[in-house]
Amino acid sequence: MKMMKTALATAIVSTLFMGATAHADGHKISDNELRIGYLADMSGTYRDLAGPNGEEALKMAIEDFGGKVKGKNITVMSADDRNSPDVASSTVREWIESDKVDMVQGLVASSVSIASTKVMNGTDTMGLVNGSAASSITNEHCTPNHIHWTYDTYPLANGTASAVVAEGGKTWFMVTADYAFGHALESDVTRVVESNGGEIVGGVRHPLSTDDFSSYMLQAQASGADVVGLANAGGDTVNSIITAGEFGLAQAGQTVAALLLFLTDVHALGAETAQGIQLTTGWYWDKDAEARAWADRFYDRTGARPSMVHAGIYSSTMHYLKGVEATGSDKAADVRAWMADNEINDMFAKGGYVREDGRMVHDMYLAEVKTPAESKSDWDLYKIVRTIPGDEAFRPLSQSKCSLVK
Amino acid sequence: MTMIFGVPAAAFYGQLLLGLINGAFYALLSLGLAVIFGLLKIINFAHGAQYMLGAFAAYLLLETLGINYWVALFLAPIIVGALGVVIERFLLRRITHIDHIYGLLLTFGLALVIQGTFTNWFGVSGSRYPVPEALQGGINLGFMYLPIYRAWIVAVALVVCFAVWFLIEKTKLGGYLRAGTENSALMQAFGVNVPLLVTLTYGFGVGLAALGGVLAAPVYSVSPDMGSNLLIVVFAVVVIGGMGSIVGAILTGLMMGIVEGLTKVYYPEASSVVIFLVMIIVLLVRPSGLFGKGT
Amino acid sequence: MATTETKMTAAQASKQAENRRRYILYAVLLAVALVAPFLAYPVFLMKILCFALFACAFNLLLGYAGLLSFGHAAFLATGGYMTGFLLSTYSITPEVGIITGTLAATVLGTFFGILSIRRQGIYFAMITLALAQMVFFMYLQADFTGGEDGLQGVPRGHLFGIFDLSNNLTMYYFVLAVFLFGFLLIQRTVHSPFGQVLKAIRENEPRAISLGYNTDVYKLVAFVLSAALAGLAGSTKTVVFQLASLGDAHWHMSGEIILMTLVGGVGTLFGPVLGATFVLTLEHQLSQSFLGDWVDVILGVIFVVVVLTFRAGIVGEIQKFMKKNFK
Predict the structure, then answer these.
(1) Which of A4, A8, A10, A16 should one mutate to test binding to chain C, selecting the residue with the greatest count of C CBs within 10 A?
(2) Topology (CATH level 3) of domain B18-285
(3) Could you tell me the pTM of the whole model?
């Protein structure tokens, strides 16, 4: 009877292993297929940035390309990275080794992108990073196998800060999230403000994921600074903006500058609360007719307007597929070389190009949130105030710590 | 300008007042938890999710049925409280007699389900709930600008806290409840329907969480994860106050609001962890919490 | 432990038979583990082994000492970050890095234990949670952890200077050895006199005290051992994935380990191993399927169902089933 227990236990353990086994060699490995893996946060804090709609953007690119490249079929597999670099790195490893995936798209949380690109380094698989903000991805963490497409924190800080200072916002009070990302944003802004003749008169660092910003907004008010700079992201930024409105900062004459704010956040806030806020973005769905046409198709498919990340996923996939078609190869090195040799001219960017550190350089846009009177629909939220040329916006190669930059 | 430890007096009083306001909010939230644990010995880890449900109920009532804030203040807690009743009757009742740990784990699992489902339905960006017209704007108190809505939160929180305390400690119904949870068999022999009381009490505690959610909706973004960070803070408050004590939860909530508020002025980086520090110190010195009745 | 003279031989014989069967079971499972990397994906198996060790360490405290800790993630993360930092900064071999990481977790465990061991039930859980939260914020702010980016690019190195761990197969057998070490340590502890006293404390602490046992010391030792093995799991995991991140220190990780232990079977030796295998396999399969968005919800449902009806977990239910039908 104890033998039964042994047998049963063994059977169960083996069955569970079969779960992992089945996945490992269930796919027939065929080199007559181009495989793209979509890895993003599907159920956590970054879900709205890329998420399930990002997969739709990816599919749109494949469909628009014709569904095949050089006669080979294109297949998509997707996985939820759950914002865990462990999950991401093992998924990417498995995709490369067992499923022969040729390109990984999406990649949102910076820890996920960095971990995934390290796994891809030295293989034939290319990574297209669209969701992440960390500029370290093309700096100390650069690899020859990935391109950072949509945006990073450098132009965000640069664009917004210099524009706001130029409009008269000379004195700044910084509300910073107390972790490396927030500190990096804060120091980027400090540098830009001071070099443009402005001054940081005070600041406060709050813990990550703070609910209540009333105390910090009070301190910002008391400082009397022209500008309250928000060096934080996500829910922290949204809550900061709501509280700033509640305490009447704008009425008292202070400008709120949000350094990392996405369309999805502004949509959540609504024009009433967010009006007048200045931010920098890599793309806006209504910036011109071509962008709008694509955004309309996206809207029909998903029921929401695309963020810059969604557009970046479409654009980078298209450029990649063109590269595969032109070189006839699915090896990262070959396609990457083609992608760098050819400009990007599509609904996402005009005159965009890929640098040797993997940064895709394109124009960025300084936007201001419309007033409720100006906003004709719930996604009609930005007016583009200024276009920041790509070469001005991104970190210059002379300051780069990337090993690929000679 | 007088300085208090390096901070101008006006700013100091402003932060103190804000701390008190947050404290009242914490008190209200911990009240529900304290009622549920103090009377039912259930460790309700779903409290944060139920708070979120209250906020979403208010939001959805407005968006889909056009029901305004004032009605939502009563309706949302009732709706979510009813859900609480269902949870207790069909789920919790089966395990509470076994070990308190299972109540904790069950409600933890429920929180995962509720939060995950709402994330998939509504996304995580959050939604905006407008401050009701009558409560918009603020008063200039001289040392700070106080939004009227924040004053409203304090008022509601204090009134509700007092009312609940009075109900439980001073009325006959409260007496039945306290006796029923201490000696259920005896109370049932006297003809009191103890299981019904337990179910309704859980629903009531959940309703209190939901009320906190409705109050929070205009000032915090309404999103599925709004309760998860707040949950452990509120638990810490209840533990510091002493897990059996209603008074303890209320007073500790207020105190912690002030402590946190002052930390935000002098050492803001630590404002998330100061409450845990306090909890550890308190538990070392007074193992059952400040007002606790012993393990 | 003492039995009367007349019953000793029968009891001894039956114990010998039980031991023999247990060893056969172990041998079979070991055989499966040895061939597994040729059947399934080695990195995934290593993840299972690390989490199984973590779950076993947690179960030592919950299942055998009766203490529910809500802060075990702190030990996983400490082992992981310490090892990751040392291996990235100094040219030391991986086993030195892992041992140091484990030591760091042990020290932290001693500190946590001294502060929390006098409390029971929810108070104990809350103290461990509070301490873990403070550790989380410390790692969030510290430079060496890389904050949100994580500590990346940790080299796998050469074990003892000889075996190249960048080969997944070699790495797997090393991880298996580490797991077996931890598992056997727990097994020996549980079946030792120390383990018996722990069980007595879990079942009726006042009586154990009245018998003269210093229960606080026993519980503290169990706590520190549990923390050390959790740190070992974290250190090893860092070498496998070549990274350590904040997710390891977040209280959701503590929640996940509770789930694995519960689903597998609290208070059984194999329960946590099965639980870890089950939960990780489920997560893995689901996140790549159309149900990908619903992984957390499904885990929550499983949690609820297990607590309501299958409280003994997979292994526990099997044992109950066996007892009922085959005795």
Answers:
(1) A16
(2) ABC transporter involved in vitamin B12 uptake, BtuC (1.10.3470)
(3) 0.88
